[in-house]
Amino acid sequence: MANSENKQVINAGIVGWGAYIPMYRLPTREIARVWGWPEHQYKALNVSHKSVDGPDEDSTTMGYEAAYNALLRSGIDPKMIGAVFFGSESKVYAVKPSATLIAEMIGATPDTMASDLEFACRAGSEGLKASLGLVSSGMVKYALAIGSDTSQAEPGDVLEFTASSGAAAFIVGPRSESAAIVEDTYTYVTDTPDFWRRAEKPYPRHGEGFTGEPAYFTHIIGAVKGLFEKTGLRPEDFDYAIFHQPNGKFPLKVAQRLGFPKEKVLPGLVTPYIGNTYNASALLGLARVLDQAKPGQRILLAPFGSGAGSDAYSIVVTDLVEERQDKAPKVDDYLARSYEIDYALYAKFRRIYVMLPRG
Amino acid sequence: MVLPVWWRKRIPRYRFVGALCKDCGRIHYPPRNACPYCGSRNLELVPLPRRGVLESYSIVYSVPGDNRLNAPLPIGLIRLENGVRVVAELTDVVPEKLENGIEVEAVIRRIGEDGETGTILYGVKFRPALGRK
Amino acid sequence: MAYITSVGLVRVNRNYHKSPRDLAFEAASKALEDVKLDTIDYVIVASSLTYLQASQFDLAAYIARELGVHVKSAFTVEAGENSGLAGAEVALNLIRSHAAERVLLVGVDKLTEYISNRTYKMIQAIYDTESDAVYNVGHAGPMALLMRLYMDRYGVDRETLAHWPVMMHAHGKENPYAMLRFAVTPDKVVNAMPIAEPITLLDAYPIGDGAAAVLLSSDDQGGDHLARLTEVYSSIGFQSIALRDDPLSIEAVGQIAREAGLSPDSIDVAEIHDSFTITGILLLEELGFAPRGKAAELVAEGAFTKGGSGPLVNASGGLKARGHPKGATGVYMLAEVAMQLAGTFPGVKADSPRKGIAVGVNAHGSSARLAFLEAL
Prior knowledge:
The structure holds three protein chains of three kinds.
Chain A: E1 12-20, E2 24-27, H1 28-35, H2 39-43, E3 49-52, H3 59-74, E4 81-87, H4 98-106, E5 113-117, H5 123-137, E6 142-150, E7 165-174, E8 180-192, E9 195-196, E10 205-206, H6 212-231, E11 240-243, H7 250-258, H8 262-265, H9 271-274, H10 281-292, E12 298-302, E13 304-305, E14 307-317, H11 321-325, H12 331-336, E15 339-340, H13 343-349
Parallel strand pairs in A: 2-15, 4-5, 4-6, 11-12
Antiparallel strand pairs in A: 1-7, 1-8, 2-3, 6-7, 8-14, 9-10, 12-14, 13-14
Helix pairs in contact in A: 3-4, 6-7
Chain B: H1 3-7, H2 10-15, E1 17-21, E2 27-28, E3 43-47, E4 51-60, E5 73-80, E6 85-89, E7 103-113, E8 120-128
Antiparallel strand pairs in B: 1-2, 1-3, 4-5, 4-7, 5-6, 7-8
Chain C: E1 2-9, H1 20-31, E2 42-46, H2 50-53, H3 59-67, E3 73-77, H4 83-96, E4 102-109, H5 116-123, H6 140-154, H7 158-161, H8 163-172, H9 186-190, E5 194-196, E6 199-200, E7 210-217, E8 227-236, H10 251-260, E9 269-272, H11 277-286, H12 295-300, E10 312-313, H13 318-321, H14 329-342, E11 355-362, E12 367-375
Parallel strand pairs in C: 2-3, 2-4, 9-10, 9-11
Antiparallel strand pairs in C: 1-7, 1-8, 4-7, 5-6, 8-12, 11-12
């Protein structure tokens, strides 16, 4: 395989990580009840509930809380952050950065880069990779990469079973301060229109089965195989494998095809409990794995975004991980904080009934 | 247009910063031009503890404003860990589980917006505290 | 010192068919029935919501012309819910300083021009819009926080507190100017619709429009008067209940009560601000009419109604039953106390009262005023 990515030591790693999941949960059976789906339609997705943002939450507030948790774990002065990347497909403004909002909220302003990235579910990962580059090159000391989404799905569309809300954030910093270092990465991108949302339209469209083989599987497998080829690593070298998780079924399938046993996938698989948090999807999986990982363990991370592309990362946990695990709420704390709602309340929270300003 | 009204107060509202009076030693939130207790102008901005205890609460049913998205609206009188008190909206509340004395923590949420096409106001609210800091 | 020469009241109600100017005209015309209009120097209009609801600046000048009086000056006084007594303070000082011989004080406000949630949003501005009112707390929210705190601290139950609105409705029933003229039971109060728990609809003032007018005169004017206005004590309080050492202490009211040297025995009749049950209860305690935590019990025992052990409080029915047209409320209070002292109040009457007070606050006590009146 031709390789545009240089083999070099990435002199950066993850100094702090943070997660956020809103407390409201909508059962998939409730969605099926309202829209008249047979249970076969959703049972195969392996998603029991999806997380729903409350009426006063959005991708900014969720991204902020994840970033705040990442800061707590890192212990760094937010003024030292030189770049903030916000990856989302549910930005609160079509024009006006969310990254500046979060940068201001955490106290990283004014001497910092800040921008929003868009690549369906993969923008947060692109932010992570760009952060690694900026830090590794010495241009900035720390960078903050956030993936946050209050994912949209048209009422009645099958997408509604999984489109959910959550955020994950990572402070990238010097290798010596990292709780997990990034050994290498590989990115695989093509123009594959499996899922999109036209400007000014409220809901995305998708190619149904077309989102699977030509999109999700082709790109993730392409990225992971590229990483294997570049590094010489094999599935047995990894303790955990985390893939983009649009549902509870695809990540297990792609793992099997790549030769990873289920046990290595399950610790980083959160979609069965909260649905697909889009830009936070695989990154929340990484946060959950870091919450429990031991020094020396190796993690494969492979987020995916429609349109389409995937990044594969080889991440190695350092001795610093354990002292940081308890410095902020864990993914499991947020998973445990759940309050079940019905479709009526969901429709109100998501403003499906009426598109009125929030007074 | 309320844009500059919200914008100029963003730092204390985003970062939950209070003001310490260097003459009488008392802290107040939000920061003001003069100490409400002694009138001193000798003030210094200080970050406030994010945790506190709910001293009193109410569920407001007659919610002012344009719609009922946030109704009913829980509000609280919170005593922070350093003794400073704040009146604020509560969030992520299950009304039946509210009671005086529970531990709460500051979070950032949407407080309002300037109509459908205007800017969004973010600020501090309090929610029942999560398991650990 | 100034004399209260005459008063004019409009019944508080949903006066949909009348504008603020119509209401002001009606109240002022009653107060000016036997008065030569060219003897009036100043018109002071006390109002808080009108400039929002009627979109009118320089309201006093427009109202003065509407009344047909050619005064040398007219201005509007705004102090939120405390506007009426702020107007009285200004009028008294104009007369005391010999800047004026006769001042017509008109309080007016309408609350029914817009739908209720718009009006609540406007009323919310009585609180600090840089702190508590950043949130959609409404008028009742912060007072509900105090009510729950009070119940918790003193172990006073909801039912005992319900005796305040019960007393207010019993009084309001007899007052032809009261908006709510029916009796309620404690049970009805407790089980009424919650508006901000634990405050129910029957703990709260009704939404109504009104206007009241009082003509104040100097010593030199001669003729008949109703009562003497000897002093208006005034103080300001913290921006939020959160800033008080004790959130339940309305320090601005405590301050003016001390200045006025109040004791329960020294006062025969009082009109006090009771936007909600808890406001009335806290004011009774802050004024020294009841020990801390005991006001509700004393109210239930009938201490503040006719024949009770304390002064007759809110014979008008208070904000609760007479109504609370914001800026006008203090002027109603002043007129009602003056009529009590003159023996002309057309409702529950005190027995030959000599001294009376009208006490108002804005919101939780951002400002407080106490008007002291004496019988002639």
